[in-house]
UniProtKB/TrEMBL annotation, chains A, B:
Coiled-coil annotated residue ranges, if any: none
Entry similarity comment: Belongs to the class-II aminoacyl-tRNA synthetase family.
GO biological process: histidyl-tRNA aminoacylation; mitochondrial translation
Protein name in UniProt: histidine--tRNA ligase
Domain Aminoacyl-transfer RNA synthetases class-II family profile residue range list: 42-370
CDD domains in the record: HisRS-like_core (cd00773), HisRS_anticodon (cd00859)
Encoding gene per record: HARS1
PANTHER family linked to this entry: HISTIDINE--TRNA LIGASE, HISTIDYL-TRNA SYNTHETASE
């Protein structure tokens, strides 16, 4: 039937955005922002259709990138046995949600996707996989929803497990962060890299006792939010480090650079005494050589102040931050990750290790930015993909409207019809405008007699 | 660069399945089925990459259908305030998962997507929406995983909220079930329809006391699993119904038909005495007239034994079952739904009602069937979409391989490279075969000198 071809061929039907033409339209989205009567759990949110459209766009960008790099995907349950999560997150374990004991097993909601991934690898004896996983995780943190911090939030993880030559998978993870943040077009960003071995070596040569490495590391991790004076104060007065050791650390953590810094530090009289630091620094050089080939060194900085909180990292670590134009202050981390060669072994009865490196994109912040952008722009986000509305100007044509709609649906065309016996033409056209439907097929007695259908573009009222 | 065009133009790159050519390949999927060392929570499952590929295919079919019918999508949190779920599910409420009280609000995991949807509408004062929602729900039921019954499982819901002319949205929901089950190609199916008003009218004229309607309804609901004798026994001996009333019910619930049955029952001496039943029967006639226009009456049966357990239904109810070839025994429900005009009002402080009708596709059973099909067939399911593998036959070409891979990635082509300095050509080709990568770009000293790349199809070893 010709209308099917007409609609299918129309260039409108894949458009994502369309210009606002009338503001009087009753807009679902606006309703959604009114006072809330029933309440949601603290720190959680609904996604309305407009927010979902943005979310879908962000996910598509991220998933395309993961697929471009050859990743498979897996899924794991939202809850795990409590013991699976125990002892993996250090001080943050207090933020884990537990389920009520209703008889049976003790369960907890997943805190991240990395530990379930390691459990999955061990359980299925997988030693080689490149996988992505996009799912919600749960943390009983203080919510700060305007800043994109929720108790339920998405993580988009990409990980490479397997025994490979050093730094090649690690470099690919950074390439992926670079691609995704560039494509999402969120403005300037920077990817800081460091290595746990360099940190540990640095702590050792600065005179930090071995049993304080992790806790001092947690304090260093606060440098993106606190001044050096406050960090030093916490080290010395709360964690009992000598002032001299703290000052030594202070010198190192102020350093930033690229491959040249790694080379310089390999010559550093003190740091070069640590075998661990040297191994990390050599790998850092190697990493930068691959990053050059991948053409991403413009955004990557070797930054000795980067520490990252989680316990399970064993090698390279990294974190991407958005940097506001004209400022060097970071406005928040949007991706992070690193190498964790020991985690899978924690789940294996024979402690067999599977080396892993991965990255997690934290997209709630990205959503916030995209939503603000969408609101600020004159573009209206479509929340459906309907190509054509089947309408009529006259009464008693419900059956004919439904028949034509059926034909369109059966031909795979996205079509809508009003669920009223005798809707007004104006309200049918209004619905098209509100939801951005580009075409309207108008039925009338005369057209039915002639066996034709008028197809109009909604925006111009012109016949196609 | 020409290789980019070559790969991009290759007809292979969107293929989903490919023939198994070598069985010796170490297959991830097989590993996944080995004995499990770490355990998962009871009634939950991981999805391995092969299962995810099948899941993605099923979701795409379902989402395309929902979008074809003009639905927007929303998302809600995995947990709700406990009070939101209280009093909505009747006897099934005992199956709700509660979270541990860790200070703060009392939370429960969502039991379905319908109650959160109603809460969302009330909270945002939405009176008109057509939305779909695909997400996991949680029930502390006895798991029967081989039959596709899990404690964590997906629901794919499509609902139409709003005040419209009778039976048009209801008929569209059935059209959607018909489209999805046809497209998923799961074999024969049947969609049973009934109406809560017809059931209630039937109970009234059969002499069931009004306060026993819901509990007798629950017993009738078991007719798909139990014989009439057992159902009658439960009514009489457990629920205290008179034998006479039970026998009367027995006569009605054996009836099946189409519009003709609705017409006949409108003339039924007893049933026509119930105003409620008559309203339901008239609407059933109207429904069938729309189903005829939608061309779906071949699969739809008006079945007076269909009851459905949930409390919130107020009008039309339906359930789709797969019917094995040659048998009339149903092998399980794969979709269900109905009209629930009172649920949104339960969340509104002024009890404003928003009429709703919807359908939920329960896809775990669908996954099981599709997975069995995939295993039985000679087709291997691809778990990545990689178009080309960048390989080399000679040593010391890592940098060149990474450079070419970077070019491909930057051009948007899905490409892989082995993370080894000097991988064997055979192991690179083996990887292509294992994961169905159609093309391989082979670098060698001579090609580098000549500034060209050999592009071969993996299956035939021929140059492209």
């Amino acid at each position: 039937m010709s209308i099917i071809k007409l609609v299918a061929n129309s260039s409108f039907y894949m458009q994502y955005n369309y210009q606002i033409r009338e503001d009087k339209s009753k807009n679902l989205i606006e309703c959604c922002q009114e006072t809330q009567l029933m309440s949601l759990c603290q720190g959680t949110r609904d996604y309305n259709p407009k927010q979902m459209a943005i979310r879908e766009k962000v996910f598509n960008t991220i998933i395309s990138c993961f697929k471009r790099h050859g990743a498979e995907t897996i899924d794991t349950p939202v809850f795990e046995l409590k013991e699976t999560l125990t002892g993996k997150y250090g001080e943050d374990s207090k933020l884990i949600y537990d389920l009520k004991d209703q008889g049976g097993e003790l369960l907890s909601l997943r805190y991240d996707l990395t530990v379930p991934f390691a459990r999955y690898l061990a359980m299925n004896k997988i030693t080689n996989i490149k996988r992505y996983h996009i799912a919600k995780v749960y943390r009983r943190d203080n919510p700060a929803m305007t800043r994109g911090r929720y108790r339920e939030f998405y993580q988009c993880d990409f990980d490479i497990a397997g025994q490979y030559d050093p730094m090649i998978p690690d470099a690919e993870c950074l390439k992926i962060v670079h691609e995704i943040l560039s494509e999402l077009d969120l403005g300037e960003f920077r990817i800081k890299v460091n290595d746990r071995r360099i940190l540990d070596g640095m702590f050792a040569v600065c005179g930090v006792p071995a049993d304080k490495f992790r806790t001092i590391c947690s304090t260093v991790d606060k440098l993106d939010k606190m001044s050096w004076e406050d960090v030093k104060n916490e080290m010395v007065n709360e964690k009992g480090l000598s002032e001299e050791a703290a000052d030594h650390i202070g010198e190192y953590v102020s350093l930033q650079g690229g491959m040249d810094l790694a080379e310089r530090l390999l010559q550093d009289q003190k740091l070069s005494q640590s075998k661990e630091a040297c191994a990390g620094l050599s790998d850092m050089k190697l990493l930068f050589s691959y990053l050059q080939i991948f053409q991403v060194t413009d955004k990557v900085v070797f930054d000795l102040s980067l520490a990252r909180g989680l316990d399970y990292y064993t090698g390279i670590i990294y974190e991407a931050v958005l940097t506001q134009v004209g400022e060097t202050v970071s406005v928040g981390s949007v991706a992070g990750g690193g190498r964790y060669d020991g985690l899978v072994g924690m789940f294996d009865p024979k402690s067999r290790k599977v080396p892993c490196v991965g990255v997690s994109i934290g997209i709630e912040r990205v959503f916030s930015i995209m939503e603000q952008k969408a609101e600020a722009s004159a573009e209206k986000v479509r929340t459906t993909e309907v190509q054509v509305m089947v309408a009529s100007a006259q009464k008693n044509l419900l059956e004919e409207r439904l028949k034509l709609t059926t034909e369109l649906w059966n031909a795979g065309i996205k079509a809508e019809v009003m669920y009223k016996k005798n809707p007004k033409l104006l309200s049918q056209l209004q619905h098209c405008e509100d939801s951005g439907i580009p075409l309207v097929a108008i039925l009338g007695e005369q057209e039915l007699k002639d066996g034709v259908v008028k197809l109009r573009t909604v925006a111009t009222r012109e016949e196609v």
